[in-house]
Amino acid sequence: MRIRILMSFVVFSAAELVCANEPVVTNVKPDTAGGKPNVLFVFTDDQAVDTIRAMGNSEIQTPNFDRLVHSGTTFTHCYNMGSWSPAVCVASRSMLLSGRSVWRAQKIYDTAEQEREAGRWWPSYLKGAGYRTYLTGKWHVKASPEKSFDVVRHVRGGMPKEHPDGYNRPLADRVDPWSPSDPRFGGFWEGGRHWSEIVADDAVDFLRQAADEPAPFFMYVAFNAPHDPRQSPREFVEMYPPEKISLPVNFLPEYPFKDLIGCEPTLRDEKLAPFPRTERAIRVHRAEYYAIVSHLDRQIGRILDALKASGKEQNTWIFFTADHGLAVGRHGLVGKQNLYEHSVRVPFVAVGPKAAAGERIDAPIYLQDVMPTALELAGVEKPAHVEFHSLVPLLEKRQTSSSYEAIYGAYLGLQRMIEADGYKLIVYPNAKTLRLYHVADDPYELKDLAGDPQYRVQITRLAKALRKAQQQTGDALSLAGLLPDE
Known about the structure:
Number of domains: 2
Strand order of the largest sheet: 1-12-3-11-9-2-8-6-7
Radius of gyration: 22 Å
Helix content: 25-40%
Number of strands: 17
Largest sheet: 9 strands, mixed
């Protein structure tokens, strides 16, 4: 995989880049002496790869995510490996904190506190390396957050409390009962202040503390946004009139295999919009999705300004990614419980002393690679059980290709995928169906090539790679009779 450098000529106004409430920290000496770098990890929930203006979405306003993209190196093909649960974030975070691939992370999910006690835990390794550790926001794993980090604030569950009016909407024959900016629906408004703003409040406060600390810091800043209920202040909702939002090019009223792959109408995520999907409903949901992303972007700007004010910016690595993507109307789906690019790919940006500004790397990675990357930067040897790979060799250009022969993905026992050499093979065991896409030329996965005899060679090669990936990850699902013989 090649690395390409994009020169950026985008100019931002001061209003786009500076928050009016930029914190001021006095009597702080710039942290330029070197030593172990600080690590600021910014983690979002349900944020698809195409939700950043600087990455090609001209409909969305994200000046601070753009700020990260232009300041650092973007990994354009970052994936989540999948999930054993409809709550895909549970598996994603278990892999992230333990360093284990999806099925081995499942085995330790219920005993995560024992993993922490044994020191086999991302923040535990950094504590041992002398880091002061901070957590705010979404956690969603079965280990004590208070014992995992030195300083902990506002630990959140999987999602804000839902409201029945937020589902099966909008309908064509009635007034939409939902308002994303109305605090009476609770959710992100529970407690009186939007949860994204509270996470940013905490992060700004942590950075004020860290400014006076001699030890390097590790901050785990985990937003629940832009997960549903997709709520944000009226200012942001009004930025995106639904009638001006484009339909996805891969919009479908209904996915033909939805019931056999676990995306039936009873699945919570899929219940958000009516069946069959209507153009109006998808425009409304996408408008609300963009609004909460833009509100989230405002909070990211506050954190970046606080980091600069702390005097620690020059010796800090910032890593931004999300736990998985989201369909929001693509392929007739709304949730993340599928293996299309919109749901398995996420943004991933690294900003730091060795990250070239404005560079993009196409080599495929997993988002969980951030864990061994941070360990290497902290001088911690990668533990034997960690199955993901440090990105430092790619960032330093000592390596130009991916550490992975292929990208593997899974959802329950209902879906499998393998992606390599520009092709993706998806397997639906219950539907006894294969789907093949040439994603290099068909990034929206519009044309299924599985039934075309001329692609038999690609299917056979990918089937072999999938069997190998299953063996490597401990995936016991039998695909006998579905894949061609080697």
